[in-house]
Design brief:
This protein is an alpha/beta fold and 524 residues long. Helix content is 51%, strand content 14%. A hairpin with a 2-residue loop joins strand 8 and strand 9. The relative contact order is 0.14.
C-alpha cells in the first residue's frame, strides 16, 4: 500500500505546494517529461565537451580501486557523449551508510534514469551518487543503528570527514556478533570488514559499499573534493568572495518563504565557503581582509584570489553553495533529495539565474516502511489503519479509548442541549440591559468550560481503566515508528538485508513509482 505525501500531515507544506505545482516559478522544475525535455535542451546549450572530458577523467580516476561492472563502464564511457545526462542524489558518508533512506534515495535516482531512458530513448541517462566528502561534522556520520544495537566509530574530527582514516574497528566485532547467524549476515560482515579496514578513509569505505550494493544498476560515485573539478567553479567562488552573490540573490526568496511558510530551511552566510587545511574552517570577511575562522590564517583580497586561482581545491562550498558546484560540473537534469534538501534547493532559484546556470528538476524522494506480517495483523485487530500512525496518534488513542462510551455520548448531547438553551436565552437577552446580556454570555462560557473539564477527566479516567489497551496502542506505534520517528531515519539497511539479501534491494526498487512522491508500506 502507499500513502501520497499530500495526505501525510508531517510532510512540510512547502513540499506539498511544490509537488502540487502551487509554488510560483517552480512549475517547470517538477517531475514531468516535458520539463525533462526542456531541461535537456537547456543543459545541451550550457554544458561543454571539455567539461564532459573532465568529468569522465575525474570519475574514472576516483574509481580505479573498484571493479566496475559492465553497466557502470557503459555509463561512464557514455558521459563523453553530448547526448548523455545525469540524475543525481547525494548524502553524507554515514558509517556503513547510516539510516536506510540512504538506500531508498539512491534506488529512486537509478529508477528515474531508467524511466527517462524508456521514455526518451534517444538520450542516455546516468545515475550518480555525490559523496559529501567535505562535510566536517563527524558526530553526524560516525554511527548507525540496528534493531538491537547502536554502533559508533571514533575518529579525528574537524577536517573533511572523507579524509579521516579508519583507526577504531571495535564496532565491527560487535556487528559480527549480531549478524553472524543471519542468512546474508556473512556477506554484510565481509563488506563491513573490507570497507572499514584500518588505514582506509571514509570516502573509500562508502565508495566500496555503494559499489557492492549498486554496481549492477550502473550507479557511478563522484567525490567533489578534487582540484580538477573545483577548477571549473573558480568564477562562482570568486563572486562569492567578492560580492556575497548567493546571500544577496536569495534574499527575496528567503523573505517569501519566511512570510508564507514561517521557515527558511538554511540561512546562507555572506560567504558560503570553507577553507581546507587539516581542518575545514569558515571564511569570513572583516574590514577588507579574509579570515579563516579558528585559525591564525588571514588573506588580503589579492592574496585570497591568488590562492583560489592556484589552489581551488582548498576552497570548499557549504550546503547551500554545493548545489551550484554540482550543477556546474555535471550534465545534470534532476536532483533526488529528502524534504529538507529540496527545501533549501528551493531557496536557490534566483541565485542560479544570476550565475547563468540551469536550475534542475527537483524530486522529493519516496519513503518506505517495512513491517512484519504480525504487526499488520495487530494493526488490523486494533481497528486502525496504517495511515492512522502518520497523523496525530495521541488523538487516535483518545478516540479509540472513548469509542462507544455512553458517558461521552451523554456529555456531548447535554453540551449541545446547553448551547441550544443559551442561544434562546441570548436572543431574548439582547432586548434587555446590555450588562444582563453579557452576564448570559459569561455564564454560557463558564458552563461550557465545565463540560470540557468533565470530558478531559473522563478521558483521563478511561485511560487509567484501559491502561492495557493504551500500552498496546503505544507499543504498536513504536513498531511503526522505532524511537518515535520514521523507521527509515532510524534503522540501517542491514536490518532488512540480513535475511533477504539483494532481493530486498530489488523488491524495494520494483515497488517505487518515480512519478509519485509517496510513502510505500510493505510486509517483510
Amino acid at each position: 500500500m502507499t500513502i501520497d505525501f499530500q495526505h501525510i500531515p508531517s510532510i512540510p507544506k512547502l513540499i506539498k505546494d511544490f509537488l502540487g505545482k502551487k509554488l510560483d516559478g517552480f512549475q517547470n522544475n517538477t517531475f514531468n517529461l516535458d520539463n525533462f525535455r526542456n531541461q535537456i535542451s537547456e543543459k545541451q546549450q550550457s554544458y561543454s565537451d571539455d567539461k564532459r572530458e573532465l568529468l569522465y577523467n575525474a570519475i574514472f580516476a576516483q574509481n580505479q580501486e573498484e571493479q566496475l561492472s559492465p553497466k557502470q563502464l557503459e555509463y561512464l564511457f557514455s558521459l563523453k557523449d553530448n547526448n548523455t545526462f545525469t540524475i543525481t542524489t547525494g548524502h553524507q558518508l554515514n558509517l556503513f551508510t547510516g539510516p536506510v533512506f540512504f538506500i531508498y534515495k539512491i534506488l529512486q535516482t537509478i529508477k528515474t534514469a531508467e524511466f527517462l531512458k524508456s521514455n526518451l530513448p534517444e538520450h542516455n541517462f546516468v545515475p550518480v551518487f555525490w559523496m559529501a566528502t567535505e562535510d566536517h561534522d563527524f558526530d553526524e556520520i560516525n554511527h548507525f543503528k540496528t534493531r538491537d544495537h547502536y554502533y559508533e566509530i571514533k575518529g579525528n574530527a574537524g577536517g573533511d570527514v572523507g579524509s579521516i582514516r579508519i583507526e577504531d574497528t571495535f564496532f565491527i566485532q560487535e556487528f559480527e556478533k549480531e549478524f553472524k547467524d543471519h542468512i546474508y549476515g556473512t556477506e554484510l560482515i565481509l563488506w563491513i570488514k573490507k570497507a572499514y579496514q584500518h588505514g582506509k578513509t571514509h570516502t573509500e569505505a562508502i565508495r566500496y559499499l555503494v559499489n557492492q550494493l549498486f554496481a549492477d544498476y550502473g550507479l557511478l560515485t563522484i567525490d567533489g573534493n578534487s582540484k580538477e573539478l573545483k577548477s571549473q567553479v573558480k568564477d562562482v567562488f570568486r563572486k562569492e568572495l567578492l560580492s556575497n552573490q548567493l546571500f544577496e540573490t536569495t534574499k527575496g526568496q528567503r523573505e517569501f518563504l519566511e512570510q508564507e511558510y514561517h521557515k527558511v530551511q538554511v540561512n546562507p552566510r555572506e560567504i558560503n565557503l570553507f577553507y581546507l587545511t587539516e581542518t575545514r574552517n569558515r571564511i569570513e570577511k572583516i574590514n577588507n581582509e579574509y579570515f579563516i575562522l579558528d585559525t591564525n590564517l588571514k588573506f588580503s583580497e589579492e592574496e585570497i584570489l591568488n590562492e583560489l586561482e592556484n589552489h581551488p581545491e582548498k576552497f570548499s562550498p557549504n550546503a547551500v553553495l554545493r548545489p551550484a558546484y554540482q550543477e556546474t560540473i555535471m550534465p545534470n537534469l534532476a536532483y533526488v533529495g529528502g524534504n529538507a534538501e529540496i527545501m533549501y534547493w528551493i531557496e536557490l532559484k534566483d541565485y542560479f539565474e544570476s550565475i547563468n546556470l540551469p536550475f534542475p528538476i527537483l524530486i522529493p524522494r519516496n519513503s518506505m516502511l517495512f513491517l512484519e506480517e504480525k504487526t499488520f495483523r495487530k494493526i488490523e485487530k486494533s481497528g486502525l489503519q496504517v495511515e492512522d500512525f502518520f497523523g496525530n496518534f495521541a488523538g487516535v488513542i483518545n478516540q479509540k479509548i472513548l469509542d462507544n462510551n455512553d458517558i461521552k455520548s451523554l456529555l456531548e448531547k447535554k453540551e449541545q442541549d446547553l448551547i441550544h438553551s443559551f442561544s434562546e436565552i441570548k436572543i431574548e437577552a439582547e432586548h434587555t440591559d446590555k450588562t444582563f446580556a453579557n452576564l448570559v454570555k459569561a455564564e454560557e462560557a463558564r458552563q461550557l468550560k465545565s463540560f470540557k473539564r468533565m470530558q478531559k477527566r473522563l478521558l483521563k479516567a478511561e485511560k487509567l481503566k484501559q491502561s492495557e489497551k493504551v500500552d498496546q496502542l503505544q507499543n504498536l506505534f513504536l513498531k511503526v515508528h522505532p524511537g518515535g520517528t520514521w523507521q527509515e531515519r532510524v534503522y540501517n539497511f542491514s536490518v532488512f538485508y540480513a535475511d533477504l539479501g539483494k532481493q530486498w534491494i530489488a523488491d524495494s526498487y520494483q515497488q517505487m513509482d518515480v512519478q509519485k512522491s509517496e510513502l510505500i508500506i510493505s510486509p517483510i
